[in-house]
Amino acid sequence: MRFLLRTLLFFSALSWSTFASASSKTDEEGFNVSEYIMHHIQDAHEWHLWGEGHDATSIYLPIILIDNGVKVFSSSHFYHGKELHLNNEHCFMGTGPAEGYALVHEKIYALEGGQLNIHDGHVTNAMPWDLSVTKNVLSLFIGVGILLLVLMSTARYYRKNGAVSPKGIAKFIEPLILFVRDEVAIPNIHGGKHVKYLGFLTTVFFFILVNNLLGMIPVFPGGANLTGNITITMFLAVCTLLITVFSGNKNYWKHIFATPGVPWLLLPIMIPIEIVGIFTKPFALMIRLFANITAGHIIVLALISIIFINKSEAWGALSVPMALFISVLEILVAFLQAYLFSMLSALFIGAAVEEDHH
Amino acid sequence: MTGMFGSVAAIGAGLAVLGAGIGIGRIGGSAVEGIARNPEAAGKIQTVMLIAAALIEGVALFGVVVGFLGAKA
Q: What's this model's pTM, rounded to 2 decimal places?
């Protein structure tokens, strides 16, 4: 507690000292908060490390396009290409291997006759298949690398030493895995059937946890908003949906198509409701994880923006402790969302394999 | 400051958060009351409270997401 207070005081004191130095910042176009926030929570084709504008240091990720053949080139051909402002759209025209393509708001469009057609603020050019390694993909690889490293070392320990009290990395991981088994899997999937699904549940739990926590680290290799990408959460929810649907037993489908205790006149209403219910539950899983993590990032970014809106580092004395508090809350949210996603998945799977006991 | 000023989507998101605040506040109140009545069950009550709060927050964030979708530019 005292350590925390001392750290907060230290950082506040750092920012107060900037009152003495006059900060004269010349900005070319003003600071647009929503653009700043949106840029940081969305996917990108480069991983910006430090610096501003043209002398920024970024990792330029490879762009892989499928457009009558596979085209692979570095995204620096966009970001160091021609920068234009067409109809209030900031776009990068590709040079070199990226000739004939343009990057608008991190989406790649094929130029038609060297032109970007913009109608009503929307680009109407065709988009080639974009299979690039983007910031989120790279963050996914990093998260998966961490997971494989940690969990395979744990598995190797047990394979070597048997079922003993662990030492090393296994000592840290074992309570988490036992937590998933004893608090998530067994209470929700009855009758000893949890063993089949334990692999999926531990994977989902650790995947969401590691990627949530990586997103909270502000510097490389963290800081990419992976679990706040709705495609990722959609994939996880689809996994839960498929497992639920394909392990549904007779009792489960009976509950959906002939809910016990419902008079037959009401069945035409109940059956569509139940069928839609099969899909809304994973949909809620997807939205819950996406919105929680993205909202957390937006709050932290908005608090940091206070410094830039007021154009003075001294505002950091207010902004940094608030952002610190919210970040600690977000760490709790990271754990909670991982637990919640796996618990609800276990609940749905448990409902699917439940034996009839009326 | 541009962006959400004057956007009805912001009002909608704020209303959704209002509902979440009331709901989670009530959960917190009942949880604290439950712990006051039965301090031994504090661990279980806390777990259930966190789960219920996260579920309600999920619904509130539905509203926020719709607010995002409706925001201008």
A: 0.85
